[in-house]
Design brief:
Largest sheet of chain A: 7 strands, mixed
Number of strands of chain B: 11
Low-confidence stretches of chain B: none
Order of helices and strands of chain A: EEEEEEEEEEE
Number of helices of chain A: 0
Helix content of chain A: under 10%
Radius of gyration of chain A: 13 Å
Strand content of chain B: over 45%
Largest sheet of chain B: 6 strands, mixed
Structural class of chain A: mainly beta
Oligomer: heterodimer
Mean pLDDT of chain B: 91
Structural class of chain B: mainly beta
Order of helices and strands of chain B: EEEEEEEEEEE
Distance between the termini of chain B: 41 Å
Largest interface: A-B, 28 and 23 residues
Shape of chain A: globular
Mean pLDDT of chain A: 93
Strand content of chain A: over 45%
């Protein structure tokens, strides 16, 4: 158990809908990362937050947004969903925003858009 | 553009042999590089981190090398076991302005035959 909790584990929704994925980082970790992993694809970096502020951005679509709350949990909002958004979405946390600390990953949310 | 390349073909080896996985990167100058293990449907798990001023790092049966001239990292598992079968991800940490991005390669699948 990595200590990172993601909910829900599975989500099935229709095209055009909006969903929210939730991530609770490990206790004490200030940094949260979001990744998308499509079938047989690598992990695509979406966005990173550190202590409530956006720290780094990857190839995140404009239809997607995220935030980190004062209690450090984070939410990833996906809107106007398309079939191609079906993927595993992972959240990871680390103690600092710096690179010399490992990232701990949650078990992911499997999103299926039908 | 920046690229991380890992062998897309699976590496199939006999139990007891040494597995060597390659990570090549272009147009990056990572100060750190991490290796993760990912099992199907699960989040990646951190294995090792190596800094740019370290040529080699070891942890039990694992060894990582980092050649900043060749822009390559090698990941070795000695005395491999069937339980080592998984996908291994290379993740150079790249500085972007005042932050670091943890970017993953697409991974190499390792199969260890009993």
């Amino acid at each position: 158990d990595s200590g990172v909790t993601q909910t829900p584990k599975h989500l099935i929704t229709a095209t055009g809908q909006r969903v929210t994925l939730r991530c609770s980082p490990r206790s004490g970790d200030l940094s949260v990362y979001w990744y998308q992993q499509s079938l047989d694809q690598g992990l695509q970096f979406l966005i990173q937050y550190y202590n409530g502020e956006e720290r780094a951005k990857g190839n995140i679509l404009e239809r997607f947004s995220a935030q980190q709350f004062p209690d450090l949990h984070s939410e990833l909002n996906l809107s106007s969903l398309e079939l191609g958004d079906s993927a595993l979405y992972f959240c990871a946390s680390s103690a600092q925003g710096q690179p010399n600390t490992e990232a701990f990953f949650g078990q992911g949310t499997r999103l299926t858009v039908v | 553009s920046q690229k991380i390349e890992q062998n897309s073909e699976a590496l199939n080896i006999q139990e007891g042999k040494t597995a060597t996985l390659t990570c090549n990167y272009t147009n990056y100058s990572p100060a750190y590089l991490q290796w993760y293990r990912q099992d199907p449907g699960r989040g990646p798990v951190f294995l090792l981190l190596i800094r740019e001023n370290e040529k080699e790092k070891r942890k039990e049966r694992l060894k990582v090398t980092f050649d900043t001239t060749l822009k390559q990292s090698l990941f070795h598992i000695t005395a491999s076991q069937p339980a080592d079968s998984a996908t291994y991800l290379c993740a150079p940490l790249v500085r972007v302005d005042s932050s670091y991005k943890l970017i993953f390669g697409s991974g190499t699948r390792l199969l260890v035959r009993p």
